[in-house]
From TrEMBL:
Disordered, as annotated region: 58-150
Name recorded for this polypeptide: Collagen like protein
Annotated InterPro entries: Collagen, Tumour_necrosis_fac-like_dom
Biased composition (Low complexity): 66-150
Gene3D superfamilies to which the protein is assigned, alphabetical: 2.60.120.40
Keywords: Collagen
């Protein structure tokens, strides 16, 4: 197919190798080896000879200015998954969450081995006294011990003090006199003078004293023993019927200064008269 190009005669010269563009058929662009020599209807025709051998590569021209940035192309497909990077450092400890509900009770584990023996506790209180056992058989007779020293003969001190005549009338608050006596007191623990009402007893001694009395008058009446002017507890006896004999006794213990014993009328409805041989005192030293 023929190629046409427009030649601008104002610019053409003998050695022009500009490109001419055909106004009608701008399909091709040709370069004339020599010059454009025929022009027809604003068309140009290039006289094209056979293509010569390619000349040597000319030097690279200077870098032209960068063209404008083209539009961004469509997103390409995702590349293959890269290898996993190294483990990053652990993050800070987060806050503790709320306590969860308690789980169900697990099954009881097996019995563990017995622990070591603990120390002995303190002694407990004594138990109640057990019942007495049966009497054991009698042991063999022991040997006779040596004879002890002879003890004091306290029974040697005794006295019987009494009336051999009836008394004159005696009123309440008076002592009873005695007019006869039998005194057996080697140690002097008992002393008495007939006609008196007071018997003297030794110091720091113990005596048993008993009395008897009978009156036909002054019913009722009550008599008893006194030591140093004081009544002896439990020694008073009383009579409610005339010609009735009454008696009583007591154990008497003297002090450091000895004692004075008498028989005393504690109560009488009227004067009394005591009968002979039925009114008396008996005294025995005990210690």
């Amino acid at each position: 197919m023929a190629s046409y190009k427009y030649v601008d005669t104002r610019k053409a010269n003998k050695y022009s190798n500009d490109c001419c563009k055909c106004n009608d058929h701008c399909d091709n662009c040709c370069k004339c080896n020599n010059h454009c020599d025929d022009c027809c209807d604003n068309h140009c025709k290039c006289c094209v000879g056979p293509k010569g051998a390619t000349g040597p590569q000319g030097p690279v021209g200077p870098q032209g200015p960068a063209g404008p940035q083209g539009a961004v192309g469509a997103q390409g497909p995702a590349g293959a998954q890269g290898a996993t990077g190294p483990q990053g450092p652990a993050g800070a400890q987060g806050a503790t969450g709320p306590q969860g509900p308690a789980g169900v009770q697990g099954a009881t584990g097996p019995q563990g081995p017995a622990g070591a023996q603990g120390a002995t506790g303190p002694q407990g209180p004594a138990g109640a006294q057990g019942a007495t056992g049966p009497q054991g058989p009698a042991g063999a007779q022991g040997a006779t011990g040596p004879q002890g020293p002879a003890g004091p003969n306290v029974v040697a001190d005794n006295a019987d003090i009494y009336r051999v005549t009836n008394t004159a009338v005696i009123s309440q608050g008076n002592t009873i006199p005695f007019d006869a006596s039998l005194i057996n007191s080697p140690s002097g623990a008992i002393s008495f003078t007939n006609g008196n009402s007071t018997i003297n007893l030794g110091a720091n001694m113990t005596f048993f004293v008993r009395f008897t009395a009978t009156s036909e008058t002054g019913i009722p009446y009550a008599i008893g023993l006194r030591l140093n002017g004081l009544g002896i507890n439990g020694s008073i006896a009383s009579a409610q019927v005339a010609d009735t004999s009454i008696s009583n006794g007591a154990i008497v213990k003297t002090g450091a200064t000895g004692g004075q014993l008498d028989l005393f009328v504690f109560f009488a409805n009227q004067t009394i008269s005591l009968l002979r041989f039925e009114t008396s005192l008996q005294i025995i030293r005990l210690a």
